[in-house]
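Lab notebook, entry 278. We have the chain sequence and a SMILES string for adenosine-5'-diphosphate, and the next step in the workflow is to get a structural model of the bound complex before anyone spends time on docking refinements. Request logged below.

Task: model protein plus adenosine-5'-diphosphate, output structure tokens.
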Amino acid sequence: MTNVSLPMLSLRGVGKSYGCNRVLKDFNLDIQRGEVVTLIGPSGSGKTTALRCMNFLEEYDEGEVYIGGALLGYETMPNGSRRRASERAISEVRAAAAMVFQQFNLWPHMRVIDNVTAPLTLVKGMRPDTARERAMRVLDRVGLAAKANSYPSQLSGGQQQRVGIARALAVEPQVMLMDEPTSALDPELVDEVLEVIQSLAREHMTMVMVTHEMGFAAKVSDRVAFMEGGRVVECGPPQQLFSDPVSERLRAFLRTWLSRNANNDLAAFDSVAEPGCK
Ligand SMILES: Nc1ncnc2c1ncn2[C@@H]1O[C@H](COP(=O)(O)OP(=O)(O)O)[C@@H](O)[C@H]1O
Ligand SMILES: [Mg+2]
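Result returned:
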């Protein structure tokens, strides 16, 4: 059970290495219930790794990740050392956090409805008819009830990602983790996915999202965290972070972004200063 008075997600001094490559270093971030936090930063700065550590798809090796106050992935021994928790304990804590992947990760040989029910019946042990009912509800939620019996290959990329979102919603997570949910999509399919995400934000779904859609980040985020070199360099409300960046590294990052996107998304930057706008 998660404790409602604590942050939904809390990362304290998290470190992660691949061999001798230390990709997360003293990563700190608290995400409150109902908050939408966006991770931005250059390629290779550790955004995906940070997100994957938030539900133990990646094993972090320093610091702590708490979901609703429960330590994720490890148990503390009486002598103060820690060891990997049992798979069952990990699953229990992780169940509160659902992931939406950049490449959708749908099972190609299964119909849309079965993609959504599988985690419910196989992982949660839900009865097939109950799972089906819930799956239809979340598919309707993302506007795809009519595609329940299609195969992923019969859907557009935007529709496939909406199924990915429905699958994540079906487990009724307390926090959604989304890794560049629109970056594998053709430009004309991006908006339909962003609209679904925005509607979740309006309903105060807690979300942590990695995105390069800076205008969108500005619109839906309560806070934006800029990462570089495996840590959060600067974090704050989008209007502050985008209009008045403190660190030179974020200034440089935004300059590069603006010069690359000079024609299409400046307007979104200008509209940042709508307080509390979602
Ligand atoms: N499975 C892995 N094995 C080894 N190195 C990895 C692995 N995943 C990521 N890395 C490395 O970790 C660093 C951070 O990667 P990543 O978290 O994917 O960054 P971002 O999402 O910000 O682009 C990169 O240097 C990348 O090469
Ligand atoms: Mg990434």
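Notes for the group: Confidence is low (pLDDT under 50) at residues 266-278. Worth checking against the assay data. The two ends are 29 Å apart (CA to CA).
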